Amino acid sequence: MAALSGQYGFGYGIQVHAIGVGWEEEERVLGALNDLGITWVKQQVEWFRVEPQRGAYDWGGTDGFVDRFGSKKILFSVVKAPSWAESGGKVDAQAYADFIGAMAKHYQGRVQAYEVWNEHNILRDGPLFQPQEYVDLLCLAYQAIKANDSGAVVVAGALTPTGVTNWQTAVDDAEYLRRLYQIPRFKGCFDALGVHPSGFNNPANVGTDYRDVNEPSFKGHRSFYYKATMQSYRDIMVANGDGAKQLWPTEFGWASTPNPVRDYEYAANNTPAEQAERIVTAFELAQQWGWVGPMFLWNLNFGPVAPGSEMAAFGIVDNFWQPMSAYFAVKQLIQGSP
User: Torsions phi, psi of 201, nearest 5?
Assistant: First the structure.
């Protein structure tokens, strides 16, 4: 990057869903990326789909993605173990490393970065990893990726913002990160640190003292604020002598919908105009800080591919591929003109 560690500098990215969606959807995604001026694209890769049996790889979906979006820089976030590699809520770390190493070999020079797992401090889409378990997975994956593509960036998987800690279903993300840094090997097993700084229903540039009497919920705790989460991670990195590495927001955004699903009620507080303004401010703040690498807005096209879901509420096109206010705001930010 231009600023730190000899990797990539700040960049505009977005998460898409473009595997198994059909040629027409892929074309719409690529057209939107080009129209926006996006240079980085993130796709989540579900391990269980690519290696349903050990050593039997089906690269068809990911090959299609790399072929279609190869004009962009690509981040693959690799998650979700096949049943043969998970037992009793534990993932076989060596099997994961073997898989991601094979992926790095297969796409050598064509995929720029790999994120090792996703939101492993909660029990949701996969097991809650204890910090030592995650470090074991990360270090094996790092070695496997670098052995097969030394130029690929290894991103330590982003934690999910939460203030809940019980070590069974959730762990506060800042506390989890501190625990990771207590394990000496951790620092040597990644090039950049992933982060998911959600803003909930709060502006991007406010601190934890921000209040809104009309929107009293989702206030007070650090995890509800974009800037506070970003700064807390940065402070932990610096305190542990790791300030030369970048933070990569591999998901960030604001949900906006008048009809939110359960647990995402705050999305009704964000108007489309506020969603747009907060996304732009988040990009601008990160670029000013100087310690942020590529940023991946969450998301482009989950409205069309998963209408009615909580994911769709974060999208910048609606269920029918009509651009929302945030789409135009991001385009103007990147291109410097309406």
Answer: -115, 30
Range of the domain at 286: 11-335
Element at 194 (helix H, strand E): strand 192-195
Reported as a single tens digit per residue, the pLDDT across 25-54 is 999 999 999 999 999 999 999 999 999 999
Average pLDDT, the chain: 96
Q: Does 101 reside within a domain?
A: yes
Q: How many domains does the chain have?
A: 1
For 10-42, give one letter per residue: b (16+ CB within 10 A) or e: bbbbbbbbbbebeeebbebbbebbeebebbbbb
Q: Is 216 exposed, middle or buried (0-12, 13-18, 19+ CB in 10 A)?
A: exposed
Question: Could you identify the residue written with the tokens 């994956």?
Answer: 141
> How far is 316 from 331, CA to CA, in rounded Å?
11
d(CA 105, CA 101): 6
- Looking at the domain assignment, is residue 2 inside a domain? no
Handedness of CA 321, 326, 329, 330 (dihedral sign): negative
Q: Which two tokens stand for residue 180?
A: 């990771």
Residues 6+ apart with CB under 8 A from 205: 227, 281, 285
* pLDDT digit string, tens, across residues 152-191: 999 999 999 999 999 999 999 999 999 999 999 999 999 9
Compute, in degrees rounded to 10, the torsion defined by CA atoms 201, 204, 209, 214: -30
Joined tokens for residue 338: 């309406």
Residue 175 maps to a domain: yes
Q: Are 158 and 122 in contact (CB under 8 A)?
A: no
Handedness of CA 253, 269, 125, 58 (dihedral sign): negative
CA angle in degrees (0–180, nearest 5) for 261-249-188? 130
CB half-sphere exposure, 45, CA atoms < 13 A: 31
CATH number of the domain that 49 lies in? Answer: 3.20.20.80
Q: Considering only CA atoms, which of 193, 106, 179 is closest in space to residue 144? A: 106
DSSP label at residue 186: G
